[in-house]
Amino acid sequence: MFSQGEPAGNSEYFDYFILFDAEKSVQVVKVFNYQATHGYEITSRGWLKQFAGHDGSESLQVNKNIDAISGATISVQAITEDVQRQTSLLQRMKI
Fold first, then answer.
1. CA 25 → CA 36, 40, 52, 72, 94, distances in Å?
2. Average pLDDT of the residues of the chain
3. Is the pLDDT of residue 71 over 80?
4. So what's the pLDDT on residue 83?
5. N or C: which end of the chain has fewer CB within 10 A?
6. CA 2/CA 86 separation, integer angstroms
7. Rounded Cα distance, 57 and 83, in Å
8. For residues 60, 63, 69 and 75, what is the CA-based torsion angle, rounded to 10 degrees?
9. What's the pTM value of the predicted model, to 2 decimals?
10. DSSP letter assigned to residue 6
């Protein structure tokens, strides 16, 4: 599943993908196009691994079960909300 972080205010778009397993749980999230001048830390494999295993049974919340990143508040919020939204959509599908 490919997604695009949505801009808010003065932010910019970024592209990323989410890989799910057969049980519809997140396996990998990878940012492959991040051109903003700040907040690039969200592209870090170490930070992105927080999403692995997410199956929609718990809500994702920055500063609760997802680490915040100083200087990347909007990007962190955007990707967190979208991973949760895409997982929820997939879980509701009857496949």
1. 29, 25, 8, 25, 15
2. 89
3. yes
4. 97
5. C
6. 10
7. 13
8. 40
9. 0.85
10. P
Stretch 53-78: mean pLDDT: 94
Residue-wise over 5-41: b if at least 16 C-beta within 10 A, else e? beeeeebeebebebebeeebbbeebebeebebeebbb
The H or E element spanning position 81 is helix 73-92
Is pLDDT above 90 for 7? no
Q: CA–CA separation, 27 vs 44, rounded Å?
A: 15
Cβ density class 52-80: b for 16+ within 10 Å, e for less: eebebeeebeeeeebeebeebebbbbbbb
The identity of residue 47, as a single letter, is: W
What the block records as the tokens of 2 is 């490919």
Scan for tokens 């990323």, then name that residue.
Answer: 16
